[in-house]
Design a protein that fits this description.
Structural class: alpha+beta
Strand content: 25-35%
Mean pLDDT: 81
Distance between the termini: 13 Å
Helix content: 25-40%
Low-confidence stretches: 1-7, 165-172
Number of strands: 7
Largest sheet: 7 strands, mixed
Amino acid sequence: MEAARKTTPILRTSVGEKIELKIQSERDMWYVRADKSQIDNVLINLCVNARDAMPNGGRLTVETSNVQFGQRRNRPPMGAEPGSYVALIVRDTGHGMDEDTQSHVFEPFFTTKEKGKGTGLGLSTAYGIVKQSGGCIEVESKPGRGATFKIYFPRVESVSYTHLTLPTIYPV
């Protein structure tokens, strides 16, 4: 568990010194069918967006966990079937988004940043990577209350796939 709280200089540098970075990873994480470098790309895109939503600092939490969704209890998110998933959750204390912004957030070239500050490709890229891996991604946010991005990758049984633990993604 201690190793899960550490991160590489790349992620720390990406979010900056004003932001408190907290990393939590469950033990004995399941495997997913996803390219490690693509998962890195998703995580960095989400963290950079979180950083931009907290220009005066704040708290950024990244966590992984194993999740079981059923037919009736603990229902899966929209677009996912009941079953076993690995969750990657990125939560920030930034300025948040209204419902209209949330409805466009994964569209290519959509950005809320001022001209010259963003391409609008980070979240659409993350969305594409997650979908390509058979997963789903959702956002929860309210203005003034930050944002939470939840990604669910289907579990695979073979160890020949990516083991989604934060120490594996960002070895110390």
